[in-house]
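Cross-posting from the chemistry board since nobody answered there.

I work mostly on the small-molecule side, so proteins are not my area. We synthesized nicotinamide-adenine-dinucleotide and want a rough idea of how it might sit in this target. Sequence and SMILES are below. Is it possible to get a predicted 3D structure of the two together?
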Amino acid sequence: MTTHGHSSATALERPVRVAVVGAGAFGTLHARAFAANRDCTLVSIVDHDEKRAAALAESVGATASHQSIDDALSSGGIDAVSVVTAGAFHLAPTLAALDAGASVLIEKPVVLTSSDGRILREADARAEGFVMPAHILRFAGAYQELRHRVRHGAVGAPRALSFRRHRTADHDTLFPDIHPVLMTMIHDIDLALWLTGATARTVSARQVEAPGRNQPLAVWAEVETTDGASLSFQVSWSLPSGSLPDALEVIGDAGALSLSLSPRLHDFDAATPAIDDTLTPDAAHGALREEIRTFVDAVRFHTPPAAVTLDDALNGLTLAEQIIRSAEQNRCVS
Ligand SMILES: NC(=O)c1ccc[n+]([C@@H]2O[C@H](COP(=O)([O-])OP(=O)(O)OC[C@H]3O[C@@H](n4cnc5c(N)ncnc54)[C@H](O)[C@@H]3O)[C@@H](O)[C@H]2O)c1
Protein backbone atom coordinates (compact mmCIF):
# COMPACT_ATOMS: atom_id res chain seq x y z
CA MET A 1 0.00 0.00 0.00
CA THR A 2 1.35 3.48 -0.86
CA THR A 3 1.35 6.41 1.57
CA HIS A 4 -1.30 8.80 0.33
CA GLY A 5 -0.91 7.28 -3.12
CA HIS A 6 -3.29 9.97 -4.38
CA SER A 7 -0.60 12.09 -5.93
CA SER A 8 -1.01 11.62 -9.65
CA ALA A 9 -2.20 14.65 -11.60
CA THR A 10 -4.74 12.83 -13.76
CA ALA A 11 -8.37 12.93 -12.74
CA LEU A 12 -10.60 9.89 -12.56
CA GLU A 13 -12.26 9.51 -15.92
CA ARG A 14 -15.53 8.30 -14.43
CA PRO A 15 -17.77 9.58 -11.63
CA VAL A 16 -16.48 9.06 -8.07
CA ARG A 17 -18.37 6.15 -6.48
CA VAL A 18 -19.67 7.15 -3.04
CA ALA A 19 -21.25 5.42 -0.03
CA VAL A 20 -22.96 7.41 2.76
CA VAL A 21 -22.86 5.70 6.19
CA GLY A 22 -25.63 6.87 8.53
CA ALA A 23 -29.07 7.65 7.18
CA GLY A 24 -30.20 9.95 10.01
CA ALA A 25 -31.06 13.63 9.78
CA PHE A 26 -27.64 14.82 8.66
CA GLY A 27 -26.83 11.73 6.58
CA THR A 28 -29.95 12.58 4.58
CA LEU A 29 -28.52 16.03 3.82
CA HIS A 30 -25.16 14.52 2.85
CA ALA A 31 -26.88 12.01 0.56
CA ARG A 32 -28.90 14.76 -1.15
CA ALA A 33 -25.78 16.85 -1.68
CA PHE A 34 -23.88 13.90 -3.21
CA ALA A 35 -26.91 13.10 -5.39
CA ALA A 36 -26.83 16.69 -6.70
CA ASN A 37 -23.11 16.52 -7.55
CA ARG A 38 -22.64 15.44 -11.16
CA ASP A 39 -19.09 14.22 -10.61
CA CYS A 40 -20.14 11.36 -8.38
CA THR A 41 -22.49 8.39 -8.26
CA LEU A 42 -24.19 7.50 -5.02
CA VAL A 43 -23.57 3.77 -4.90
CA SER A 44 -24.79 2.85 -1.42
CA ILE A 45 -26.59 4.16 1.64
CA VAL A 46 -25.51 2.27 4.74
CA ASP A 47 -27.40 2.15 8.04
CA HIS A 48 -27.81 -0.50 10.73
CA ASP A 49 -31.51 0.30 10.35
CA GLU A 50 -32.19 -1.49 7.08
CA LYS A 51 -35.50 0.25 6.38
CA ARG A 52 -34.00 3.68 6.96
CA ALA A 53 -31.13 2.93 4.58
CA ALA A 54 -33.46 1.59 1.89
CA ALA A 55 -35.89 4.53 2.17
CA LEU A 56 -33.10 7.09 1.84
CA ALA A 57 -31.48 5.15 -1.02
CA GLU A 58 -34.77 5.21 -2.87
CA SER A 59 -35.44 8.89 -2.22
CA VAL A 60 -32.02 10.04 -3.51
CA GLY A 61 -31.68 7.46 -6.30
CA ALA A 62 -28.74 5.57 -4.75
CA THR A 63 -27.92 2.28 -6.48
CA ALA A 64 -28.18 0.11 -3.33
CA SER A 65 -28.49 0.10 0.44
CA HIS A 66 -26.58 -1.98 2.96
CA GLN A 67 -26.74 -2.70 6.68
CA SER A 68 -22.99 -2.45 7.24
CA ILE A 69 -20.05 -0.64 5.68
CA ASP A 70 -18.34 -4.01 5.20
CA ASP A 71 -21.22 -5.22 2.99
CA ALA A 72 -21.06 -2.00 0.97
CA LEU A 73 -17.27 -2.19 0.57
CA SER A 74 -17.28 -5.85 -0.38
CA SER A 75 -19.78 -5.09 -3.13
CA GLY A 76 -16.73 -3.36 -4.65
CA GLY A 77 -15.75 -0.21 -6.47
CA ILE A 78 -16.26 2.39 -3.72
CA ASP A 79 -13.86 5.35 -3.99
CA ALA A 80 -15.26 7.55 -1.24
CA VAL A 81 -17.24 7.15 1.97
CA SER A 82 -19.07 9.81 3.93
CA VAL A 83 -19.31 8.90 7.62
CA VAL A 84 -22.42 10.52 9.13
CA THR A 85 -23.11 8.15 12.01
CA ALA A 86 -23.53 9.55 15.51
CA GLY A 87 -20.24 10.86 16.97
CA ALA A 88 -19.36 7.77 19.02
CA PHE A 89 -19.52 5.57 15.90
CA HIS A 90 -17.27 7.40 13.44
CA LEU A 91 -14.06 5.46 13.89
CA ALA A 92 -14.98 1.88 12.88
CA PRO A 93 -16.54 2.70 9.48
CA THR A 94 -13.71 5.16 8.76
CA LEU A 95 -11.03 2.54 9.45
CA ALA A 96 -12.89 -0.03 7.32
CA ALA A 97 -13.19 2.43 4.42
CA LEU A 98 -9.52 3.50 4.60
CA ASP A 99 -8.48 -0.13 4.74
CA ALA A 100 -10.42 -0.81 1.56
CA GLY A 101 -8.58 2.03 -0.23
CA ALA A 102 -11.40 4.60 -0.09
CA SER A 103 -11.15 8.22 1.07
CA VAL A 104 -13.40 9.40 3.90
CA LEU A 105 -15.36 12.54 4.67
CA ILE A 106 -15.93 12.28 8.42
CA GLU A 107 -18.48 14.33 10.37
CA LYS A 108 -17.55 16.37 13.41
CA PRO A 109 -16.44 15.62 16.07
CA VAL A 110 -14.16 13.36 14.01
CA VAL A 111 -13.62 11.14 17.07
CA LEU A 112 -14.34 11.68 20.76
CA THR A 113 -10.88 11.17 22.30
CA SER A 114 -7.24 11.89 21.48
CA SER A 115 -6.43 8.19 21.73
CA ASP A 116 -8.95 7.46 18.95
CA GLY A 117 -7.44 10.46 17.16
CA ARG A 118 -4.04 8.74 17.18
CA ILE A 119 -5.57 5.57 15.72
CA LEU A 120 -7.21 7.67 13.01
CA ARG A 121 -4.00 9.57 12.24
CA GLU A 122 -2.03 6.32 11.90
CA ALA A 123 -4.69 4.78 9.65
CA ASP A 124 -4.75 7.94 7.50
CA ALA A 125 -0.95 7.97 7.19
CA ARG A 126 -0.75 4.44 5.84
CA ALA A 127 -3.88 4.65 3.66
CA GLU A 128 -4.08 5.04 -0.06
CA GLY A 129 -6.99 7.42 0.42
CA PHE A 130 -7.30 10.36 2.83
CA VAL A 131 -9.52 11.65 5.62
CA MET A 132 -11.29 15.00 5.28
CA PRO A 133 -13.00 16.32 8.44
CA ALA A 134 -16.43 17.79 7.70
CA HIS A 135 -15.98 21.18 9.36
CA ILE A 136 -18.82 22.74 7.41
CA LEU A 137 -18.37 26.35 8.57
CA ARG A 138 -15.06 26.58 6.70
CA PHE A 139 -17.17 26.33 3.54
CA ALA A 140 -19.78 28.93 4.55
CA GLY A 141 -19.43 32.23 2.70
CA ALA A 142 -19.92 34.43 5.78
CA TYR A 143 -17.08 32.81 7.72
CA GLN A 144 -14.83 32.73 4.65
CA GLU A 145 -15.40 36.46 4.17
CA LEU A 146 -14.65 37.16 7.82
CA ARG A 147 -11.41 35.15 7.68
CA HIS A 148 -10.38 36.86 4.44
CA ARG A 149 -10.81 40.26 6.12
CA VAL A 150 -8.94 39.21 9.26
CA ARG A 151 -6.09 37.82 7.15
CA HIS A 152 -5.94 41.07 5.14
CA GLY A 153 -5.58 43.24 8.22
CA ALA A 154 -9.15 44.54 8.65
CA VAL A 155 -8.76 44.53 12.45
CA GLY A 156 -4.99 44.70 12.73
CA ALA A 157 -3.76 41.89 14.96
CA PRO A 158 -6.71 39.89 16.38
CA ARG A 159 -6.46 40.18 20.18
CA ALA A 160 -9.83 39.03 21.55
CA LEU A 161 -12.33 36.72 19.84
CA SER A 162 -15.68 35.63 21.21
CA PHE A 163 -17.95 32.87 19.98
CA ARG A 164 -21.55 32.14 20.98
CA ARG A 165 -23.61 29.10 19.92
CA HIS A 166 -26.84 28.13 21.71
CA ARG A 167 -28.86 25.07 20.72
CA THR A 168 -32.21 23.63 21.74
CA ALA A 169 -32.56 21.69 25.01
CA ASP A 170 -33.56 18.51 23.15
CA HIS A 171 -29.89 18.11 22.12
CA ASP A 172 -29.44 16.64 25.61
CA THR A 173 -31.73 13.71 24.74
CA LEU A 174 -30.72 13.51 21.07
CA PHE A 175 -26.99 13.31 21.92
CA PRO A 176 -26.88 12.08 25.56
CA ASP A 177 -23.38 10.59 25.25
CA ILE A 178 -21.58 13.58 23.76
CA HIS A 179 -20.41 16.60 25.70
CA PRO A 180 -21.70 19.92 24.24
CA VAL A 181 -18.08 21.04 23.85
CA LEU A 182 -17.43 18.13 21.48
CA MET A 183 -20.78 18.31 19.73
CA THR A 184 -21.42 22.07 19.43
CA MET A 185 -18.49 24.17 20.67
CA ILE A 186 -16.18 22.15 18.39
CA HIS A 187 -17.43 24.32 15.49
CA ASP A 188 -16.17 27.47 17.22
CA ILE A 189 -12.95 25.86 18.40
CA ASP A 190 -12.20 24.98 14.78
CA LEU A 191 -13.13 28.50 13.64
CA ALA A 192 -10.90 30.07 16.30
CA LEU A 193 -7.86 28.01 15.32
CA TRP A 194 -8.58 28.56 11.60
CA LEU A 195 -8.98 32.33 12.00
CA THR A 196 -5.95 32.91 14.19
CA GLY A 197 -3.61 29.97 13.64
CA ALA A 198 -3.21 30.19 17.43
CA THR A 199 -2.07 27.63 19.99
CA ALA A 200 -3.68 27.53 23.44
CA ARG A 201 -1.54 28.34 26.48
CA THR A 202 -4.07 28.24 29.30
CA VAL A 203 -7.71 27.15 29.47
CA SER A 204 -10.20 28.13 32.11
CA ALA A 205 -13.74 26.81 31.74
CA ARG A 206 -16.87 26.28 33.80
CA GLN A 207 -19.86 24.10 33.12
CA VAL A 208 -23.34 24.59 34.48
CA GLU A 209 -25.23 21.43 35.42
CA ALA A 210 -29.00 21.12 35.68
CA PRO A 211 -31.07 18.36 37.34
CA GLY A 212 -32.19 15.45 35.17
CA ARG A 213 -29.82 16.20 32.32
CA ASN A 214 -27.24 13.90 30.75
CA GLN A 215 -24.86 16.70 29.82
CA PRO A 216 -24.11 20.19 31.15
CA LEU A 217 -26.67 22.87 30.36
CA ALA A 218 -23.99 25.39 29.41
CA VAL A 219 -20.22 25.68 29.14
CA TRP A 220 -18.26 28.96 29.25
CA ALA A 221 -14.55 28.83 28.34
CA GLU A 222 -11.71 31.36 28.28
CA VAL A 223 -8.56 30.44 26.41
CA GLU A 224 -5.32 32.41 26.40
CA THR A 225 -3.16 31.76 23.35
CA THR A 226 0.64 31.57 23.26
CA ASP A 227 0.75 35.02 21.62
CA GLY A 228 -1.36 36.53 24.38
CA ALA A 229 -4.71 36.74 22.55
CA SER A 230 -7.93 35.79 24.28
CA LEU A 231 -10.55 33.36 22.95
CA SER A 232 -13.93 33.23 24.64
CA PHE A 233 -16.49 30.49 23.94
CA GLN A 234 -20.10 30.18 25.13
CA VAL A 235 -22.27 27.21 24.33
CA SER A 236 -25.52 25.87 25.73
CA TRP A 237 -28.18 23.26 25.04
CA SER A 238 -30.88 25.37 26.63
CA LEU A 239 -33.36 26.85 24.18
CA PRO A 240 -36.95 25.59 24.50
CA SER A 241 -37.32 25.99 20.71
CA GLY A 242 -36.17 28.21 17.89
CA SER A 243 -32.72 29.67 17.65
CA LEU A 244 -30.49 32.53 18.67
CA PRO A 245 -28.15 33.73 15.93
CA ASP A 246 -24.71 32.15 16.19
CA ALA A 247 -22.37 35.04 16.94
CA LEU A 248 -18.70 35.74 16.47
CA GLU A 249 -16.77 38.90 17.27
CA VAL A 250 -13.14 39.64 16.47
CA ILE A 251 -11.53 42.53 18.33
CA GLY A 252 -8.18 43.59 16.93
CA ASP A 253 -5.67 46.26 17.85
CA ALA A 254 -6.89 48.31 14.85
CA GLY A 255 -10.57 47.45 14.45
CA ALA A 256 -13.37 44.98 15.06
CA LEU A 257 -15.53 42.58 13.05
CA SER A 258 -18.83 41.02 14.05
CA LEU A 259 -20.72 38.15 12.43
CA SER A 260 -24.22 36.98 13.27
CA LEU A 261 -25.57 33.95 11.44
CA SER A 262 -29.34 33.66 11.41
CA PRO A 263 -31.77 32.48 8.74
CA ARG A 264 -32.39 35.13 6.10
CA LEU A 265 -35.26 33.35 4.44
CA HIS A 266 -38.66 32.62 6.02
CA ASP A 267 -41.55 30.58 4.62
CA PHE A 268 -44.49 31.44 6.84
CA ASP A 269 -46.68 28.53 5.71
CA ALA A 270 -44.06 25.85 6.27
CA ALA A 271 -43.73 23.51 9.26
CA THR A 272 -40.14 24.74 9.62
CA PRO A 273 -40.55 28.41 8.78
CA ALA A 274 -36.91 29.51 9.06
CA ILE A 275 -34.96 28.31 6.04
CA ASP A 276 -31.24 27.70 6.38
CA ASP A 277 -30.03 29.24 3.15
CA THR A 278 -26.36 29.43 4.13
CA LEU A 279 -25.37 26.00 5.35
CA THR A 280 -27.83 23.43 4.03
CA PRO A 281 -30.35 24.97 1.62
CA ASP A 282 -32.58 22.67 -0.45
CA ALA A 283 -31.57 24.43 -3.64
CA ALA A 284 -28.58 26.42 -4.87
CA HIS A 285 -25.23 26.50 -3.17
CA GLY A 286 -24.63 26.24 0.53
CA ALA A 287 -21.75 25.24 2.72
CA LEU A 288 -22.62 21.53 2.73
CA ARG A 289 -22.66 21.33 -1.07
CA GLU A 290 -19.39 23.24 -1.22
CA GLU A 291 -17.82 20.90 1.35
CA ILE A 292 -19.00 17.86 -0.60
CA ARG A 293 -17.82 19.34 -3.91
CA THR A 294 -14.37 19.86 -2.33
CA PHE A 295 -14.32 16.25 -1.13
CA VAL A 296 -15.48 14.78 -4.44
CA ASP A 297 -12.95 16.88 -6.38
CA ALA A 298 -10.16 15.81 -4.03
CA VAL A 299 -11.00 12.16 -4.69
CA ARG A 300 -11.31 12.79 -8.45
CA PHE A 301 -7.94 14.53 -8.63
CA HIS A 302 -6.20 12.22 -6.13
CA THR A 303 -5.20 15.14 -3.89
CA PRO A 304 -6.07 15.44 -0.19
CA PRO A 305 -7.90 18.77 0.30
CA ALA A 306 -6.03 21.66 1.94
CA ALA A 307 -9.21 23.50 3.04
CA VAL A 308 -9.41 21.39 6.19
CA THR A 309 -7.00 18.69 7.30
CA LEU A 310 -7.11 15.85 9.79
CA ASP A 311 -4.42 17.62 11.83
CA ASP A 312 -6.70 20.69 12.04
CA ALA A 313 -9.49 18.53 13.44
CA LEU A 314 -7.20 16.73 15.89
CA ASN A 315 -5.75 20.05 17.14
CA GLY A 316 -9.32 21.19 17.77
CA LEU A 317 -10.06 17.94 19.58
CA THR A 318 -7.07 18.49 21.89
CA LEU A 319 -8.33 21.95 22.82
CA ALA A 320 -11.87 20.60 23.30
CA GLU A 321 -10.53 17.96 25.70
CA GLN A 322 -8.65 20.64 27.67
CA ILE A 323 -11.82 22.76 27.92
CA ILE A 324 -13.83 19.76 29.16
CA ARG A 325 -11.12 18.88 31.69
CA SER A 326 -10.99 22.45 32.96
CA ALA A 327 -14.81 22.67 33.17
CA GLU A 328 -15.21 19.30 34.92
CA GLN A 329 -12.43 19.98 37.41
CA ASN A 330 -13.31 23.68 37.73
CA ARG A 331 -9.69 24.76 37.45
CA CYS A 332 -7.37 26.40 34.97
CA VAL A 333 -5.30 23.98 32.83
CA SER A 334 -2.17 24.72 30.83
N1 LIG B 1 -21.84 19.79 10.64
C1 LIG B 1 -22.99 20.01 11.26
O1 LIG B 1 -23.42 21.14 11.38
C2 LIG B 1 -23.77 18.84 11.78
C3 LIG B 1 -25.13 18.98 12.07
C4 LIG B 1 -25.82 17.85 12.54
C5 LIG B 1 -25.14 16.64 12.71
N2 LIG B 1 -23.81 16.57 12.44
C6 LIG B 1 -23.06 15.31 12.65
O2 LIG B 1 -23.60 14.31 11.80
C7 LIG B 1 -23.52 13.04 12.46
C8 LIG B 1 -24.89 12.36 12.42
O3 LIG B 1 -25.83 13.16 13.10
P1 LIG B 1 -27.39 12.82 12.98
O4 LIG B 1 -28.08 13.86 13.77
O5 LIG B 1 -27.78 12.58 11.56
O6 LIG B 1 -27.42 11.42 13.78
P2 LIG B 1 -28.63 10.36 13.83
O7 LIG B 1 -28.48 9.68 15.13
O8 LIG B 1 -29.91 11.02 13.43
O9 LIG B 1 -28.27 9.32 12.66
C9 LIG B 1 -27.19 8.44 12.73
C10 LIG B 1 -27.55 7.19 11.93
O10 LIG B 1 -26.38 6.36 11.88
C11 LIG B 1 -26.78 5.00 12.03
N3 LIG B 1 -25.59 4.27 12.50
C12 LIG B 1 -24.94 4.42 13.68
N4 LIG B 1 -23.83 3.65 13.69
C13 LIG B 1 -23.77 3.04 12.49
C14 LIG B 1 -22.83 2.16 11.88
N5 LIG B 1 -21.71 1.77 12.51
N6 LIG B 1 -23.08 1.72 10.63
C15 LIG B 1 -24.19 2.12 9.98
N7 LIG B 1 -25.11 2.96 10.50
C16 LIG B 1 -24.90 3.42 11.73
C17 LIG B 1 -27.94 5.05 12.98
O11 LIG B 1 -28.77 3.90 12.83
C18 LIG B 1 -28.66 6.35 12.54
O12 LIG B 1 -29.62 6.10 11.54
C19 LIG B 1 -22.99 13.31 13.87
O13 LIG B 1 -21.60 13.05 13.89
C20 LIG B 1 -23.22 14.78 14.08
O14 LIG B 1 -22.27 15.38 14.93
C21 LIG B 1 -23.13 17.63 11.96
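Reply from a structural biologist on the board:
Welcome over. Reading the output above for you: The domain at 141-274+316-329 is CATH 3.30.360.10 (Dihydrodipicolinate Reductase; domain 2). The mean pLDDT is 94. Happy to explain the C-alpha coordinate format if needed.
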